[in-house]
Amino acid sequence: MEKKKKFAQLGDIWKRLRKNKLAVLGLIIIVIIFLVAIFANFIAPYSYDQQDLLSCFQGPSAQHWFGTDEFGRDIFSRVVYGTRISLLIGFVAVAIAMVIGVLLGAFSGYYGATVDNVIMRLMDILLSIPQIILAIAIVAVLGNGLFNLMLAVGISSIPHYARIVRASVLSVKDQEFIEAAKAAGSSDLRIIFKHIIPNCLAPIIVQATLGVAMAILTAAGLSFVGLGISPPTPEWGSMLSSARSYIRDYAYMTMFPGLAIMITIFALNVLGDGLRDALDPKQKK
Amino acid sequence: MANEKKNLLEIRDLTVEYHTNGGVVHAVNGLNLEVAQGETLGFVGETGAGKTTTALSILNLLPRPQGKVLSGSVKYNGEEILNKSNKEMTRIRGEKISMIFQDPMTSLNPVMTVGDQIAEGIRLHEHLNKADAHKKALEMLETVGIRPERASDYPHQFSGGMKQRVVIAIALACNPELLIADEPTTALDVTIQAQMLELMKGLKDQYDTSMIMITHDLGIVAEICDKVAIMYAGNVVEYGDKVDIFTPEKPHHPYTVGLFDSIPDIYHEQEELKIIKGLTPDPTNLPSGCTFHPRCPYACEECSKQVPKHLEVEPGHTISCHRFDDTKEVK
Fold it and tell me: How confident is the model at residue A7 (pLDDT cuts 50, 70, 90)?
């Protein structure tokens, strides 16, 4: 029975989200992208690192839908496999940023005073450095690699979560049910995790959805400047980067990974916007 | 006053201040109170008289860092509460002393089912496992008159009166010895008020709980309380048995007289309601001497100079007013 009720609440959100056609389109695209990532080895006709030097720089054809690159690798296969890496980076980076950011923001907002000042000034320092430059610095220190890339992108977006969570904690913590929870003998930690954070989830979800797009983009940017994934692992940003040298003669090489990034970001953004509207209690009817 | 029952709660000379940007707010000034086992104390006063502040200091829950206890002691079962650490307090709050808040609409967590919210306190204090706590939560719901099937509903699916029932269920879930009800019926309509009072009275007898009923409704006091404390500007100006306070022929503090006079009288046509002249004093800048003197019809020079003592006009009935001080020549 409990499940059913929770389901009913989700149902409400779904009903509101469904009215937003663009958001539904975004959701459909995201689902397709996920399916592509999961079934990459069935969809891709070639392996992502299979070279065929005799047929390099071929334009799109029936045999190679998106053409081939400078080593004769099938670009379609590489874009398909790249979905995995990009989604992985996007979601793991956001998870890292969200967990740390939510904790910092919640403690900062709940305790206030000195704790708040110390945490938020640290966040301000992080925020004062452009995200991509901060990420570059972190990767430069930690070295290349998939995990370091995710860590760099994650760390550099912590302040966004911390700020959003802090703001909503401030509005939640003065409500009477928090005082009631204190009067019932709940400890501070219990109040933060059981009463405050669940009430701040809506803005966190929205920020996370938009954050995945940001993270993919930042990761692509890092790969583009050569600080991301090392070849031959297919990542959209690094594919763009290596195709850049051939853009005059073989423009299609940059076009397909670029399109993949664009479509993913677009879908995540419209879905995030839609979710923000759907979760906004003021629009409840 | 025959002291046949032991005092559960003793407050001595409690002084609480709030430090705000607008100055120092003298919320409670040297307040004395006691609550005996099984007794219901009515705590009456205007808005801003310091009733809620007193209640929060009993739970050691004054807003930090603005709220500060300057002096005095709050003894619960002989133990000083104000010195206890936060960790020790979490064992008292909800387990020994519970509080019902004013507005049931906002004192429930909107994203937790009511069953979970009742079970939370039980799990915290009685160390039961999830299933047992849930079972007890269902029993509590039944006790306050809500069908147990509704335990998995969220607060927004309940009406105001039902929510207040849930709040009462949470407060009583761990059998507290003292229940502080901070204007529990103010946000409810009259028929529900009566139901709530009936319910609280019944449960109080059933569990032998002491209660502090904070209210500004004298009708509620008449209905439910044993003792009454009338509060004005952070101090108790009159304290006594319900019967003493509600008998007009007995001696009373001028403020109490004013309070009773301001109740509309249905039998005599009145052009205007009798109100107490003036406003409650600015708590950042309290009048000297007796804090009530600027509004008191009997005020004399003495009143603006000296703070009146608590005088026992008859056993168990104290009034702090110079008029009843026989040692002084005041008319």
Answer: low
Q: Per residue in B269-297, pLDDT tens?
A: 777 777 787 777 887 888 888 888 888 88
Element (H, E) at A33: helix A21-38
Q: How far is A48 from chain B (nearest CA, A)?
A: 47
Tell me the backbone φ, ψ of residue A207, rounded to 5 degrees. Answer: -60, -35
pLDDT at res. A3: 47
Residue of chain A with shortest Cα separation from B169: A184
Give me the phi and psi of A141, to 5 degrees please. -75, -45
Query: Cβ–Cβ of B112/A195 closer than 8 Å?
Result: yes
Tokens of B19: 């430090």
Give the residue among B146, B149, B159, B163 at the shortest CA–CA distance from A2.
Answer: B149
Sheet holding B67-76, edge to edge: B23-36, B7-20, B67-76, B79-80
Q: Looking at beta carbons, which residues of chain A come within 8 Å of B93?
A: 182-185
Q: Which residues contact A76 (CB under 8 A, 6 or more apart)?
A: A44, A45, A64, A65, A66, A256
Residue A236: both structure tokens together:
């959209």
- State the nearest Cα–Cα gap between B186 and chain A, in angstroms: 15
Q: Are A80 and A55 in contact (CB under 8 A)?
A: no
What single DSSP character describes residue B140? Answer: H
CA B91 to chain A, closest CA, distance in angstroms equals: 6
Tell me which chain B residues have a C-beta less than 8 angstroms from the C-beta of A172: none
- What is the C-alpha to C-alpha distance for residues B173 and B118, in angstroms, rounded to an integer? 7
**8 Å CB contact of B106 and A198:** no
CA distance A103 to A240: 36
Contacts of B56 (CB under 8 A, 6+ apart): B62, B63, B67
Closest CB to B93: pick one of A9, A177, A183.
Answer: A183
Contacts 24+ apart (CB under 8 A), B287-294: B290/B320, B290/B321, B290/B322, B291/B29, B291/B232, B291/B233, B291/B234, B291/B235, B292/B232, B292/B233, B292/B237, B292/B253, B292/B254, B292/B255
Q: Write out residues in chain B with pLDDT < 50, as ranges.
A: 1-3, 329-331
Q: How confident is the model at residue A8 (pLDDT cuts 50, 70, 90)?
A: low
| β-pair type (B178-182, B210-215) | parallel
In chain B, positions 45-84, which contact chain A (CB-CB < 8 Å)? 59, 61, 65
Per-residue model confidence (pLDDT) at position A242? 81
Mean pLDDT of chain A: 83
Question: A109-123, A214-228, B63-77, B317-331 — which is least confidently predicted?
Answer: B317-331
Instruction: Give the model's pLDDT for residue B83.
Output: 83
Judge whether B91 is closer than 8 Å to chain A, CB to CB: yes
Helices (H), B9-156: 51-58, 86-92, 114-126, 130-143
A-interface mutation test, from B62, B66, B111, most A Cβ less than 10 A away: B111
pLDDT band at A100 (very low <50, low <70, confident <90, very high): very high
For residue B251, give Cα distances in angstroms to A44, B247, B293.
96, 9, 18
Q: How far apart are CA B111 and CA A196, in angstroms?
A: 10
